[in-house]
Amino acid sequence: MRKTWRVAVAATAAALAFGTTACGGSTDSKSTAGGSKEDLTIGIKFDQPGLGQRNPDGTYSGFDVEVAKYVAGKLGVQPDYITFKESPSAQRETLIQNGEVDFIVATYSITDKRKEKVSFAGPYFVAGQSLLVKADNVDITGPESLNNGKKLCSVTGSTSAQKVKEKFAKDVQLQEFDTYSACVEALRNGAIDAVTTDDIILAGYSAQSPGDFKVVGKPFSTENYGIGLAKDNTELRNKINDAIEAMIADGSWKKAFEDTVGKSGYPLPAPPQVNRY
Ligand code: GLU
Fold it and tell me: What is the 76 CA–ligand 1 centroid distance (Å)?
């Protein structure tokens, strides 16, 4: 069975207690004294350009991927020892609760409801919900114009779909898919009229298909992106919070943003304050 980061740390602590060193020059970091591995399985999205994307050559890119790699580095895990696992919106709590991932960096909003099942470090980014329509659309300008049976697509298990159900045009027809990329394809072929989720996610899709789509209206929610981990694993949460603060302080956060989703034209926001609860 895969050893978790927590197990690896326990093994390292035991090795230190017995007077051995866990970081000898020639020691492969993957094989420590107890036979455990210092590796991590991190949940990301695979289909969100600029944020979390699996590329055709099998590499991964995006702001969430950069955050994940930085945090892993601070936990003593090099990029080669990270396994990225696809974490669709509706499966995130379950993946954490089942121990299938060590933590998740996947445009994952911190909410009280989710905190009943998992814990969050962060926030490491703040976004807001918005709408994506075809570039030539003129009748959808914001959530208030989503009436008259307009077809709106969002993703199962997301705060975006929830918000539409709770707060917006009663006449809108909400269609829920498993991924935003499926929504964007439905928008492209005319099966739906608009896609709703966080503005930064929509900016990534829009930049991927120049001239095809546009983000409309002002953001109508506040989405604090956290790093989801096992409930009440305070030690790991504190270490991840330390890493997020370091990433912001040493300029890596800004650089990661500019190298990834910032290329879409989404303006660099002020970095958030980590919540030490
Ligand atoms: N940030 C929102 C959420 O966590 C929407 C994006 C997503 O589904 O990943 O539900």
Answer: 28
